[in-house]
Amino acid sequence: MPWGFESPLSHSPSPQAPRPGDGMTLDASHLKISLDEQDSWRRIMSVTIPASIVQEEERSAAKHLASRARLKGFRKGRVPTKVIENRFGGTLRQEALDKLIGSAYKQALASKELRPISEGELEDLQYKPEEDLIFRIAFDVEPVIEVERLSGFVVERPAVKIEEEQVDDVLTRIQEQNGVWQPLEEGKPVEKNLVSVTITRLDEKLESSDESREYDLVIGSGDAIPDIEASICTLQVGETGDFDISFPDDFPDESRRGESERVRIALTARRQMDLPPLDDDLAKQVGEFETLEELKSKVLEDMEAEAGQQADSTVRSRLMDMIIEANPFDVPTSMVRRYSDGIMGDTSQIPEERLTEFRDQIRPEAERAVKRILLIEEIAKAHSLQSTEDEIDDRVEEIAEANKTDAAKVYAELQKAGRIETLERELTEKAVFDFLFEQSEITEGSKI
Fold this sequence. Notes:
alpha+beta; Alpha-Beta Plaits; four-stranded antiparallel β-sheet; 18% strand; 3 domains; Trigger factor, domain 2; disordered N terminus; Chitinase A, domain 3; single chain
């Protein structure tokens, strides 16, 4: 079972180890400690606490309780220790064991110079009155990574080429974003029309089975299932019809896939987009451009920059996969699970069976991500590539300049949001990949 405290490297602050007792200090010299290395990252620690220390802790706990206990027939603080032991023996023993195990675990870790990355799991506890206390705790540590090869890889970088059609698509979206919906009274809806409808589910008697719902959707955009769109397109504004619809095999709610039901649809409005001309006036309207050609150039520049970043990301991903394959190592289950849970977010409402299924699905991705994190940390440490305060300050200055604001204000905002460490990691990661790129060959490949 998980022990009631977290490791120094867990995400929550570690509580202070409890004192073993008034006037008594427990240290590693009192303990018999043995360590079993299950994997490169799994440890099982066995600790023996002498019976004399356990008994002293029980007596200390009894004295402490006696000093504040109120029992009928005794004044406060005057209850004999023996009475306390007879009355609260089980509670005192549990309190003493809790304190001793917590303190002994901390001392044993320090003596072995271990820094767990997971909560300790109490696997075994052996104790009888007047005998030694023996317990075993299992926990994870960061794996020892032996990096033997970082150079000599050949990585293909996807070529970056933006086609004219891609630029035209962006310009069309700009037109649509600045268009105006004009109402249409005559005719039936067609593709790209914006329609307003009221949909009501019908029961077997063709009567309303629940409250009607109103929707706005664009025909052909995938906002509604195909049968709903097809039914809407048979109506004119002001008309109502009853239709049989079926839920497609790719419907998000798996339980409804393949189901059929009867619905009543009322078309209350139909609109068509009135697009502005693609000209210099539109360019001036959307930004600091004088001509349409200037807008096109900016669109192309932004698309090339984005494609370049995507290509760089692909190179980093491919190179890291090669390095991981060339330097295999196992990662702690606890780290993989913590990463997986971070991806899933709040899991409190997910059934345990479904949660296990989700974890299994994303486990390969989580394992790779954890290996990537650990490798970058190891390479940065081995080659002194960790980000410096000066580099962080320079980056903050760049952010401030780009946003036309004060660097001190940017730093304060980043610090308040807890993003300084994120910035440190980003700079360290960039330094690591710059170093790795120098050790390998990056070739230009085919278009993304």
